[in-house]
Amino acid sequence: MIMAYPIFFHVSFLCVPLFIILISFSTIEVVNGGFSVKLIRKNSSNATHILDIVQSPLHSNRVDHVIEMSFGTPPTKYYGVIDTGSDLIWTQCESCTKCFPQEYPYFDPQESSTYTSVYCQEDECNRLSGNYKTCSGQNQCSYTYSYGDKSITQGLLALDTITLGSSTGGVIPLQQIIFGCGYRNEGTFNGQMMGIVGLGRGSLSFISQIGPSFGGRRFSHCLVPYDTDFLIPSVMSFGSGSEVVGDGVVSTPLFQNGNAPYYFVTLEGFSVGDTYLSYNSPSKGNTFIDSGATLTKLPQNFHDQLVNEVKKQVPMDPITDDPEIGDKLCYRRLTNLQEPIITTHFEGANIQLTPIQTFYEPKEGVFCFAFESSNSNVGIYGNYAQTNFLVGFDLEREVVSFKAADCTKYLS
Fold first, then answer.
1. Quick count: other Cβ atoms within 10 Å of Cβ 80?
2. In angstroms, rounded to a whole number, what is the distance separating the alpha carbons of residues 359 and 191?
3. Which positions carry the signal peptide feature in this UniProt record (predicted)?
4. SS in 3 state form for 263-315?
């Protein structure tokens, strides 16, 4: 998902060289008193955005978090679910055969002067794995992409301009970004979602496409709590200036596992209050951090240990007579509950979670534990546990960093 580091020279030494450097590979616009650079892509790594941090608003819709950006020329508003567990960027397109309802119009390729089709023999199409791509009757590159929650998108791979915001309030058009123009899309979406912005490790992901142009494959997000009004945004930043630094920052190494797009880390255990529970998984990279998943998923045995310890430390009786919640650990009220503090123990990084990150309200007056069991031996660290933290992914250094923050006040 820009501002370079400060240079302490007199401005007279910089003006002409800076102008020459910029004009050599980009088109400059003056936007809100600052520079906006249109990247010229055949190879976007040849361009650098010098003054701003690439940065756009981020909103919560109680389940997922959507980034605000625009598609096409002229720009069409777009809200895409941020997903660190996948690679493809896609939006619903006009004339689709099966689309879910959304609050804004579907993207219309015919109305965009910068839309370009991708054909099967082209390099962009070859970035799709064989399982995901086919060829249409017109030799256009077609894709089918599915997700863990059974959501699916099918359509045509294409190129177009995606426009983001910046830290100075300007706009940054990114030209010839590879994306999916979805014509058959279904799954767990609502009107405030218009597609998905894949932020994984693969070459098709948004951060892989734009990272070389903005100081490296780095991005950070600050996710507001699930019950925050949609109109109260936080922010997502990309490239130089997105690093998570300062007092209170903890970091843990990232691990790769084949071609998987996931951000694997090593989970060592959890503490509930002063009681430590070991994850008992000797392998490195046993968990991945997923902004597209709501709940944190753990292997059945370890999940049961964690639930039993939480029951011991919450001074209330759990709900046992509500068929809607089944066997989830839920309570009828958590007003002013400050404990237990649950500490996540990643390798080299301890992260304290309060009830705002460990319980959610599926219906009025009912609060449920934001962890669930899984049949897999690989854990998933969901977005509820990431709320009110500035989380930074740095693929250049292969670390992910965490810093506690009030994300409702982080739009700056």
1. 24
2. 25
3. none
4. EEECEEEEEECCEEEECCCCCCCCEEECCCCCCEEEEHHHHHHHHHHHHHHCC
Mean pLDDT along residues 279-285: 85
Instruction: Taking residues 60-68, report their average pLDDT.
Output: 91
Provide CATH code, domain 54-237.
2.40.70.10
CATH of domain 244-404: 2.40.70.10
Amino acid present at 225 = P
pLDDT at position 283: 86
Same fold, 54-237 and 244-404: yes
Using 50, 70 and 90 to split pLDDT, how confident is the model at 295?
very high
Q: Coil, strand, or helix at residue 132?
A: coil
Cα dihedral across residues 356, 252, 5, 79: positive or negative:
negative
Is the Cβ–Cβ distance between 199 and 206 less than 8 Å? yes
Known catalytic residues are 83, 290
Q: How many residues are listed for the chain in this entry?
A: 412
- This prediction has a pTM of 0.85
Residue 4: pLDDT band (50, 70, 90) is: very low
Pick from 100-104, 189-193, 260-264: least confident: 189-193
Backbone φ and ψ for 368, nearest 5 degrees, come out as -120, 150
Integer distance in angstroms from the first to the last C-alpha of the chain? 16
Domain limits of the chain?
A: 54-237, 244-404
Q: Is the dihedral of CA 167, 168, 171, 173 positive or negative?
A: negative
In 34-140, which ranges are continuous DSSP H helix?
Answer: 123-126
The amino acid that residue 341 corresponds to is I
